[in-house]
Design goal:
By secondary structure, the chain is mainly α. The chain has 8 helices and no strands.
Length: about 260
C-alpha cells in the first residue's frame, strides 16, 4: 500500500505542473495567427463581412460627396459673388440680361427670369411688376437652393444610421463568440477572441463612417446657407434695379409733363 501511495504521489507531482502548460499550448495553437484588421475581416462571419463592406462603401460615399460638393460650391459661389457685384454697378435690366446671356448659373437664371417678366409686362414698370418679379425670383432662388443642396441628405442618412449598423455587427460578433463557447464547452480565449475582435472591428468601422459624415454634413449645410445668402443678395440687387428704373422713368415722365 505504501508503495502504491508513493507511486500515485509521484505521478501527480509530475502531471499537475504540466497541465497548465499543456492547456496554454492548446490555447495558443487554437488562437488565430492574424489579428490584423484584414485578417479579422477575412475570418469574420458572412453577416459581419456584409456589415463591414456596407460601412466601407458608406465611408467612401461620404468622402466622394464632400469632394464633389466642395468643388461645386466653390465654383458656383465664386461665380454668384462676381455676378452679384456686377449688379451693384450702374446698369439697366437689359444690360444685366445681355451680360448674363444664355448662362445657366443661379444668378444668371435670376436675371433672365426678371428680364422675362419685364418683357411679358410690356415694359410697364409699376407695383404689380415688382410683385411679379419678387415672386419669380423667390421661385428661382428656391429651385437653385434645392439643386445645390442635392446629395447632402446622403450624409445625414449615413451619420444617423452608421453607428447602429456597426452596433448590429457588434451584436452579431458577440453572439458568435457565445455560440463558440457553448459548442466547445470552454471559456478559452481561443474561442472568445475571434468573435470579440470582429465585433470591435464592426464598431470601429461604424464610427469611422458616421463621424466624418456628421462633420461634413454640418460643414456643407453652412456652405449651402452662405450660397443661399448670395442668391438673396442677387435677388435684392435685381429688385433695387427694377425699382430704380421705375423711379427714373417716372422722373422723366414728370419732367416731360412740366
Amino acid at each position: 500500500m505504501q508503495s502504491k501511495s508513493r507511486l500515485r504521489h509521484a505521478i501527480l507531482t509530475i502531471v499537475l505542473p504540466l497541465a497548465p502548460t499543456q492547456a496554454l499550448a492548446i490555447d495558443q495553437a487554437l488562437l488565430p495567427r492574424n489579428l490584423s484588421p484584414w485578417g479579422m475581416f477575412a475570418g469574420a462571419d458572412m453577416i459581419v463581412k456584409t456589415v463591414m463592406v456596407g460601412l466601407a462603401v458608406a465611408s467612401l460615399a461620404t468622402w466622394t460627396v464632400w469632394l464633389a460638393k466642395t468643388i461645386e460650391l466653390r465654383r458656383k459661389g465664386a461665380l454668384a459673388l462676381r455676378r452679384t457685384r456686377a449688379l451693384e454697378g450702374n446698369m439697366t435690366l437689359a444690360e444685366a440680361s445681355a451680360r448674363a446671356g444664355d448662362a445657366h448659373d443661379a444668378v444668371a437664371q435670376l436675371i433672365q427670369s426678371c428680364a422675362r417678366e419685364a418683357e411679358l409686362s410690356g415694359g410697364i414698370l409699376d407695383d404689380g411688376l415688382q410683385e411679379r418679379v419678387a415672386l419669380r425670383l423667390e421661385r428661382v432662388e428656391a429651385a437653385m437652393s434645392r439643386q445645390i443642396a442635392r446629395g447632402t441628405g446622403v450624409l445625414a442618412t449615413i451619420g444617423a444610421t452608421a453607428p447602429f449598423v456597426g452596433l448590429f455587427g457588434t451584436v452579431w460578433g458577440i453572439m458568435n463568440a457565445f455560440i463558440g463557447i457553448s459548442e466547445s464547452h470552454t471559456t478559452s480565449l481561443a474561442v472568445v477572441a475571434p468573435g470579440i475582435a470582429e465585433a470591435l472591428l464592426a464598431t470601429a468601422l461604424g464610427l469611422v463612417a458616421a463621424i466624418p459624415a456628421v462633420v461634413i454634413y454640418n460643414h456643407l449645410v453652412r456652405s449651402v446657407a452662405s450660397y443661399r445668402a448670395l442668391l438673396g443678395d442677387a435677388s435684392a440687387q435685381l429688385m433695387l434695379l427694377v425699382s430704380r428704373q421705375r423711379d427714373h422713368r417716372e422722373f422723366r415722365l414728370a419732367r416731360a409733363a412740366e
